[in-house]
């Protein structure tokens, strides 16, 4: 039984007989996309974990792409009715859009078990444990035999628009060179499944021999990594022509560790 942002008003905090609960089926998975308080935030969705697996994409409150200009959202590609509805309840309706995308992407929407979204963003719950991570949406039931008794909160990020899934990687770059600089470092991943755009690993002080780490959410599953593109820039013309390189770049895949 899949709960697509189950309703908060009149249901949150009520006895389990009148709302969705893990006792309703052999396996209950839930996608929370609009769980901010109804007052004052107008959140329509329930906040507490209530299933065997509870997914909180983007933290479960504000979905990327839902803060678009109201006119651009109302005069939507799908027509004025669809656009108006999306503008009024955009976060709430993301749940079924993620679910429909999950049918097409069986390896997408990996959920990382974590105590909070902030810890997830910092990379504390990366990579997946030995038994793997469940996937949000249609294929969540592949994980039902590994469900524990307590509630499991799972976090992930999505894109702003279709297609929604992102794949998480940990990228560490150790710099080489002979002088400290100010600037930024970008990395793009190339693999058997496709290539990513450039993702910023660090910005600010760049010191040779230091290692900089970032968690990137890539728009493609790159598969087996075949090449990594490294780019740095200090945003201004330096007459000393400083040189900076990467002595090592380490890429860790969330799914396969």
TrEMBL record:
Pathway: Glycerolipid metabolism; triacylglycerol degradation; Glycolipid metabolism. GO terms for biological process: lipid catabolic process. Its EC number is 3.1.1.26. One of its GO terms (cellular component) is neuron projection. This is Pancreatic lipase-related protein 2. It comes from Spizella passerina. One of its GO terms (molecular function) is lipoprotein lipase activity. The keyword Secreted applies. It is a peripheral membrane protein. It is found in: Cell projection, Neuron projection; Secreted; Zymogen granule membrane. Residues 167-257 form the PLAT domain. Its main location: other.
């Amino acid at each position: 039984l899949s709960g697509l942002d189950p309703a908060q008003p009149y249901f949150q905090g009520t006895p389990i007989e009148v709302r969705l609960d893990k006792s309703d089926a052999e396996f209950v998975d839930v996608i929370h996309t609009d769980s901010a308080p109804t007052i004052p935030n107008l959140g329509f969705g329930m906040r507490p974990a209530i299933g065997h697996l509870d997914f909180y994409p983007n933290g479960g409150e504000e979905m990327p792409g839902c803060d678009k200009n109201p006119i651009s959202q109302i005069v939507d590609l799908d027509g004025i009715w669809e656009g108006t509805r999306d503008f009024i309840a955009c976060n709430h309706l993301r749940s079924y859009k993620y679910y429909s995308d999950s049918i097409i992407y069986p390896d997408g929407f990996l959920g990382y078990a974590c105590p909070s979204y902030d810890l997830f963003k910092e990379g504390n719950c990366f990579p997946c444990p030995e038994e793997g991570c469940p996937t949000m949406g249609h294929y969540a039931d592949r994980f039902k035999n590994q469900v524990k008794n307590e509630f499991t909160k799972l976090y992930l990020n999505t894109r702003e628009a279709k297609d929604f899934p992102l794949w998480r990687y940990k990228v560490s770059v150790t710099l080489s060179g002979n002088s400290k600089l100010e600037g930024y470092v970008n990395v793009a991943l190339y693999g058997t499944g496709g290539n990513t755009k450039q993702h910023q690993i660090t910005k600010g002080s760049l010191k040779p021999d230091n290692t900089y780490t970032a968690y990137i959410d890539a728009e493609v599953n790159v598969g087996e990594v075949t090449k990594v593109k490294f780019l740095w820039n200090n945003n201004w013309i330096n007459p000393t022509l400083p040189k900076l390189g990467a002595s090592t770049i380490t890429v860790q895949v969330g799914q396969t560790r």
